[in-house]
Amino acid sequence: MDAIEPQRQGLFATCSFAVVRSAALSDKDAESLASELKLHGGEVVIDNYPESSLDLRGITHIVATTYDFPDYNACCDALIPVIKPTWVSHSLAKDKLLNPRQYNPDPRFFMSDVVACVADLPQGDSDAIAGGILAMGGLFSTKLTSQVTHIISLSTDSESCLFAQRKKLKVKMVLPHWVDDCLKLGRKIDEQPYMLPDPDILKPSMEKAPSGRLKTQVEGASDPDPSRQKPKPDQPRKLQKVFKKKTVMLAGDLGISQYLRGILHGMIEVSGGKLTESVTEADMYICKYREGKDYKIASRAGKDVGNLAWLYFLIQTDEWTSPLRRLLHYPVARNGLPGFSSLKISLSNYSGEARTYLENLINATGAVSTKTLRQDNTHLVTAHVMSEKCAAAKDWGIHIVNHLWLEESYTRWKMQSITDGRYTHFPKRTNLGDVVGHIQLDRSVLEQFFLPDDTTDTLDAPAEPDPMRQVNHNTVSARGANQTKKPNRRPTSKDAPAAQLLTPAPAKVIPTGKENVTPSTGHSRKSKEVASARLHDMTPDILLYEKERKRVGGVVYGGRRKGHDEQSEVGRKRSKQLRTLGIICTTDPTRATHLAAPYIVRTQKFVTALAYAPLVISTDFIDACLKENKVPDPEAFKLQDTENEKRLGLTLKSSRERAQNNHNQLLHGRSIYCMENVRGGFETFKSIVEANGGRCMLWRNRKGQKVSSGRTESEAGLDTDANDDVYLLTDERNENKPLICRFKEMAEGSQKSARIVLTDWLLETAMSQQILPTQRYEV
What we know:
Elements: E1 16-19, H1 27-39, E2 43-46, E3 61-63, H2 72-77, E4 82-83, H3 86-94, E5 115-118, H4 123-135, E6 139-140, E7 150-152, H5 159-166, E8 172-174, H6 176-185, E9 247-250, H7 258-270, E10 274-275, E11 284-286, H8 293-300, E12 304-306, H9 308-317, E13 344-348, H10 352-365, E14 368-370, E15 379-382, H11 388-396, E16 399-401, H12 403-412, H13 443-450, H14 473-479, H15 495-498, H16 530-534, H17 539-549, H18 554-557, H19 565-580, E17 594-597, H20 604-610, E18 615-618, H21 620-628, H22 642-648, H23 652-662, E19 671-675, H24 682-691, E20 695-699, H25 711-715, E21 725-730, H26 737-749, E22 753-758, H27 759-768
Helix pairs in contact: 4-17, 10-12, 17-19, 20-24
């Protein structure tokens, strides 16, 4: 008779762990951690890379200090949580298994090392901060404990801050502004400018530009073709593990000499690896471009596909890293990113490798990177706005964005809208060069654009499992086979706060105020992300944070205006009730599918949202949802406002049809200037122009100012008739007449026709979604 195995005892008795070694978790530390886990009943194996991959059968938890290890994607596909070693000590301290999501080493959960408590803030602000931190992987405590890393407070006079000072606790006391700026950017930024008792961001501006860190995430990954980093034969290096038992193929498109190929061959062979000419035999495929039969075979077979810069990085560090981890470690597209070839982009306030990285990233998109800024530049990418380039760009109507716009356009393989506030946010006293390189490539995007569903390039490929395509049987049984057509993708910081993937039912419309609404939707996608599903329980907190952050006073300033508590509470209850019906609130018109309003209004949100072709419905729809607690057919609530349609000479139906055909390009190629003192404000009209693809510039009558030549539009093969006219938005104030005369002179000097029009022309053009004749609007 077989002996009965004794039942394991201890906190981790139901768990089986795999410990992943790395530069931050040495062999000694891994053994110590394994002993601790075994002491409390856990089963433990330590990875044997590069000898073999992890055997995930029966494993319940992966312990790692980084998400950058070979089996990470397989762990995600198998729904096995990856946790940092601190999860072990914290679980033991609380004598219970903690939620692993807050201990994920994935940097996209950028608050994962934050344990925050709030001191002396209104309950609404405290709830909002908690929601934002929890959504991005952090922890929130209602009281000060030894595990708290940050106290969120407006001053050091609070009880928690005084106690922390008295006990000399290692805790950072920061303003709520810090949380707000981190969540706006989707990155964790330096706390120093926000730290109490004397935060820099509250001091008067001294016109001193914030300095950046010397080292960034792009060290060794700033150039996809790093000729300056070629290994030298007189400096041989003994590699211990990175190529051990690995077979490497160097593609022909690298264009390297036989001499260099020999050097690389020697390094790889000495470390236990070998070179091959067959992609089916290779473990690593090194190429320059995302194209060709071998590239597709290697990618679909789940092999490591990287460029020469990635290979050099492995040689220099002797540590494996995913080629998807850093944008310029992966092969580039020969023809660049669609839509970028007509762009001229300049950089400002980035330095060192961060600047080199962004210059090469611009080149990889197919745009032109310029050292100097001229009027024919289309974009200025800057780390902060305190520079002469930024002042000139504002006067010339050049789009001013941070590097997130460039990085996320590249990773999503689609030009991102500059109307997204994340790309135009520049926190005071923060140099955004510090957070360059905190984003990685998306496997599902690469599959969609570079690995189309055909079999012509895989006839000779081996029948091995493809992690980019394989069906996870656990997912099928839990969620249905129709959810497995695309690979699971880890959530980005942009995904989580918007809660687009977390709704329990297809979303219909999102109200954001009494006068008008810029809605969003959560329509079912072919493949929902496993990681996003894990965030499902955080959705109410995310929505609460978004609602609180945007109100007057908000999270940043702490406290509400007198008498607003009850109204805000009602608004939150309505928002959460709508969410249960699958309706999400948003103020981002780019996500809008429905726009709710009591009647046609000429507000910034309403006019801007029309450019994205939403279905315009009456606010009666919202009332019906709340009253009946179900979603009626939105088509039955189309906004009927014949009086205003007749007055404005448009119909909402025709406007929507035109917007669908315009694709946000109604004003593309048009240069539109705006008076500084115009009613409604320059920023209002700028947002409307940019939502419709135009360029809006502030007219200040500066000497030497010229109209943009429009050369980039011509080179792109676009209709350049629009460039014959240049517009100035104004009103009928007498003090504006001298500026109008000077504007005409500038236009004539640039061989353009000046159109001096009332702001009504822009509003009604945007609302009708067609270029209206200027005659009846001209001043």
